[in-house]
Design brief:
Elements: E1 2-3, H1 5-15, E2 19-23, H2 27-40, E3 44-49, H3 58-71, E4 76-83, H4 86-95, E5 99-102, H5 109-125, E6 129-134, H6 156-166, E7 170-173, H7 190-200, E8 204-206, H8 214-223, E9 225-230, H9 232-247, H10 253-276
Parallel strand pairs: 1-4, 2-3, 2-9, 3-4, 4-5, 5-6, 6-7, 7-8, 8-9
Helix pairs in contact: 2-3, 2-10, 6-7, 9-10
Length: about 290
């Protein structure tokens, strides 16, 4: 069932659980995500990010994701993550994506507000949801690495103004998280998460979820994070699955695919179960 982000995140926020977003740059990844969500009878958000388009262009991603989402037995939102230009976001809308992240976090504040507010007006007229970003979530390595990440943390008061002026449906926050592999255990600013959630009243999004602990996830979700983005853990699992297949004697792509998909499914199942655990069922982590 193809839905937008609000169809999934608003019930999750009200009931106190989280939902995973998984990038799927090929059909094997898409199968791992959607088949696992169906097995667990849980909603899921799936898509790709603009920086991942060299691996698979947006038209091709839409060609497999949109039909798979429509056929799914659970709610599936197809989301463009970190859309960096107006033109790319418009392309995703034309292709049938039901949710857009328009990432203007590297612009100055007023430009961020104006650009994202315009995107929200367009998308809401079409029944499409929009995620914005305030502060800036950097990378753990490479050109996106921030020298002093705390300088880019999301300010709760500014976040409240941002949400009021843009009318975004979800807000990606910078609270000590980063994209990619963590060289050292991250230290999330949980107090900041709670204050932002209270001031904005909308679902918060945690980018850079791969590598965080179960304790981090559950505490962040309890405080107001509703959408958690995962790619690196799943991507690495696919490689491990291929290695297992090769060790088992598989010698063709066809023979390797089941190993790859099963390894990624294990990661997706672990994350979905962790995020969707209702708080009153929670009994694993100490605070």
């Amino acid at each position: 069932m193809l839905v937008n982000m609000n169809d999934i995140l608003l019930p999750a926020r009200e009931q106190g659980y989280g939902v995973g977003y998984f990038n799927a740059v090929n059909v094997e990844m898409a199968r791992a995500v959607i088949e696992t969500a169906e097995k667990l009878h849980k909603p899921v958000i799936i898509g790709t990010a603009e920086v991942l388009l060299p691996a698979m262009n947006l038209q091709n991603v839409a060609d497999y994701l949109i039909p798979m989402a429509k056929r799914a037995k659970v709610p599936v939102c197809v989301h463009l993550d970190h859309g960096l230009t107006f033109e790319r976001c418009m392309e995703a809308i034309r292709l049938g994506f039901t949710s857009i992240m328009y990432d203007c976090s590297t612009f100055d504040y007023e430009q961020n507000v104006a650009k994202v507010a315009e995107m929200v007006r367009i998308c809401h007229s079409l029944g499409i949801t929009v995620e914005g970003e305030l502060g800036h979530v950097g990378d753990n390595a490479g050109s996106g690495k921030l020298e002093n990440p705390s300088d880019y943390f999301t300010d709760p008061d500014v976040a409240m103004d941002y949400v009021k002026r843009t009318h975004v449906d979800a807000l990606a926050v910078a609270v000590g998280n980063a994209h990619g592999d963590y060289a050292f255990p991250p230290k999330l600013d949980f107090d900041r998460i709670g204050i932002i959630a209270q001031k904005t009243g909308i679902p918060l999004v945690l980018h850079g979820g791969s590598g965080l602990s179960g304790n981090d996830f559950r505490r962040a979700i309890k405080l107001g994070v509703t959408k958690v983005n995962i790619f690196t853990d799943m991507d690495k699992a696919g490689k491990i699955g291929i290695d297992i297949g090769l060790a088992a004697g598989a010698r063709t792509k066809m023979q390797l695919m089941p190993y790859e998909i099963e390894a990624m499914k294990a990661v997706v199942e672990e994350k979905i179960n962790l995020f969707s655990m209702n708080w009153w069922d929670y009994n694993g982590y100490m605070f």
